Amino acid sequence: MFTPLTVTVVVTGLLLAVWCGYASFRDQPVKDWHYGGAALVEVFALAQAVVSTVALAGGDRPAGEGSTVVFVCYLVAVPLCLPLTVVVSFTERNRWGSATVAVGAAVAAVLELRLADVWAGAAGV
Amino acid sequence: MSETATTAGLDLKRGPGRLLVLLYGIFAVGAASRSIYQLSTRFDEAPVAYLLSAVAAVVYAVITFCLARGGERARRVGLVCCAVELVGVLTVGTWSLVDPGAFPDATVWSDYGLGYVLLPLILPLTGLRWLRGAAAPTGPRTTTHPDRQGQ
């Protein structure tokens, strides 16, 4: 776990959620700029996944018994949120597509926070 | 729009339905993985709470499937499941506040889902509204105007 990356993913994820939420509020579909933003957040999320995988391979483990499985599940889940919702938004070119990407970005941010919690030893919830 | 809904092929996943499928899908996966983990590692600590999480997961999964599948029968099953979900979150929410000792560990429905920004309470209400509105013979009502985009 690399804390600056965690903060970056959470902050950019929430910003993207607000941005796309605003587009939905204005009755607009997801546009190229939004997709660019989503790609940026995704790059950070993937970087975190790579850093964490390297740490796991190097013998580092999240604190607490049996928390490695939980950690890996969250690690896989975070980078999936945005691609899945972006694909949905391709077929829903209206405000609901924007709302979908907004939810995906918010969920990615929340899962990233949980990921950091689990690494610190808060597994099991 | 190419997707014109008839009563036979009622499409429940377009427009606001997309958002519902996504949120219900997230809750289904979340509740299922959580209950599988808890039931397999520490069932003895809070069996009621963990079994309730499993029940919630099944309800969420069925609703997700119904919304994604569409059609009149799926709509009716979805309505029943949303009602069950609403009764569940109200019952468990009240129960967990009146008698906190009954739940040594939290469930998705504890405190009306406050730990999940009240989404467990908002979702069934929204779901019921969407599925009821979709009953019209012309298909789901939608307030979306594609021609207004870009303003």
Topology of helices and strands:
The complex is a heterodimer of chains A (125) and B (151).
Chain A: H1 3-25, H2 32-57, H3 67-91, H4 95-119
Helix pairs in contact in A: 1-2, 1-4, 2-3, 3-4
Chain B: H1 16-42, H2 47-69, H3 72-98, H4 119-133
Helix pairs in contact in B: 1-2, 1-4, 2-3, 3-4
Provide structural commentary.
Chain A: The chain crosses the membrane at residues 33-57, 69-90. Chain A: Keywords: Membrane, Transmembrane, Transmembrane helix. Chain B: It comes from Streptomyces zhaozhouensis. The complex is a heterodimer of chains A (125) and B (151). With 125 residues, chain A is mainly α. Chain A has helices at 3-25, 32-57, 67-91, 95-119. Chain A is elongated. With 151 residues, chain B is an all-alpha fold. In chain B, helix 1 packs antiparallel against helix 2 (47-69). The A-B interface holds A 27-29, 66, 69-70, 73, 85, 88, 92-97, 99-100, 103-104, 107, 124-125 and B 14-16, 18-19, 22-23, 26, 33-34, 37-38, 41-42, 106, 144-146, 148-151.
Quick rundown:
The complex is a heterodimer of chains A (125) and B (151). Chain A is mostly helical. Helix content of chain A is 79%, strand content 0%.
The description of the largest β-sheet of chain B is: none
Could you tell me how far the N terminus lies from the C terminus of chain B, measured between alpha carbons in angstroms? 20 Å
Order of helices and strands of chain B: HHHH
Main beta-sheet annotation of chain A: none
